Amino acid sequence: MARPATIGQTLTHAAAYIERHGWTRDHRLYDAHDNCQRNCPVHRSGMYPASIIGAIRAALVGRPKWFMTSTPPGMTEAYAATLDHLNHHLTSYGAARMRAPVIPWSHAPGRTPAQVTTALRAAATTAPRAPFTGPAGLAPVVPLQSRTSRSDRPSAGLFNLPDTA
């Protein structure tokens, strides 16, 4: 399967990933499948059942991906644009009689893999047709500076509370 070039293709590939490898409503990206002897098809292939977010990552990268820091240029922007569109679709149009952002929607009681793949494919139909790169382009993801010590914290917080950490 070729790497997706648009948001719609990414969502369609994510639905196909879930149909082929399974879906997990767990709060993790992928079902670690820890209760087996590591000699099952999941461990041999490295293709774990995925949450919606994990399936989108796998669709973009071609395999399960826990961290997006080591992906090719533009991949993080494509991932962010795809999630942004899916959130917009699920909150504007809804799916399976519910309007909510991705995480609450996917964790709703009674949610099924069929509803998830149907929602992904429906969101693909409302996605922009522009490729991830090109004239339309994507907004860059702004890297945030990581905190390493207490000295880089602001002296007064938003509500001027004392620093107790």
Summarize the structure.
With 165 residues, this protein is mainly alpha-helical. It has helices at 7-21, 41-45, 52-61, 75-92, 102-106, 113-125.
H/E topology pattern: HHHHHH
Low-pLDDT windows of residues: 155-162
How much helical structure, as a percent, in the residues? 40-55%
Q: How does the overall form come out from the CA principal axes?
A: globular
Helix count equals 6
What key attributes describe this structure?
single chain, about 160 residues, mainly alpha, about 40% helix, globular
What does this structure look like?
This protein is an all-alpha fold and 165 residues long. It has one domain (7-152). Helix content is 40%, strand content 0%. It contains 6 helices and no strands. It has helices at 7-21, 41-45, 52-61, 75-92, 102-106, 113-125. Helix 1 (7-21) packs across helix 3, helix 1 packs across helix 4 and helix 1 runs antiparallel to helix 6. The longest helix is centred in the middle third of the chain and has 18 residues, at 75-92. The radius of gyration is 18 Å and the shape is globular.
